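WP5 quarterly update. Target: glutathione-specific gamma-glutamylcyclotransferase. Source organism: Xanthobacter oligotrophicus. Length: 195 aa.
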Amino acid sequence: MQPHPGDVWVFAYGSLMWNPGFAFAERCEARLTGAHRTLCVYSFHHRGTPEQPGLVLGLDLGGSCRGIAYRVAAADWPQTHAYLTEREQISGVYREVTRRISLLDGSGREAPAVAYLVNRAHPQYARGLTLQDQLHLVRRSHGKSGPNTDYVVATVKALEGLGIRDAALAFIVHHLAGGHGAPADLPADDEKTLP
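Structure tokens (predicted):
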């Protein structure tokens, strides 16, 4: 299937994987190189409040990230872009950028895609949190879109459905479920280090 020249790809790495909220013409696994998925954004709206911030994912510089790419038909793009702007740009913590992605459907295709990278200069950028810090924030916070725990668990389930194991997220989910220590099935390698 050849996309229309005006169609737009959107790269999803967090909640957009399991709750896109917009119409799309095609969905496939994809890889973005040059940034990795990490819990690095304080959430004051969707999964927390300014008084009790939650913690959500961002694309931070370095490494690579596997996720989902959605192809949005050109005719649907203005409405979809307005929706994504309202959802992702509430406070400006994400920068909307265009990055080249590899589509992992066996076709060898590459395409430019809209992606949302974290703005490291923004006050909501959560730099240097330990896994225990992340766990504490996730466990206690709740925002307009629901509990922070639900967000992390749903993201891990979506990743597992793609055969992706994120060590940090697996640690947090393991402890949210009452586990102690490190999960037994943590991989030795981490997606952040992939080329």
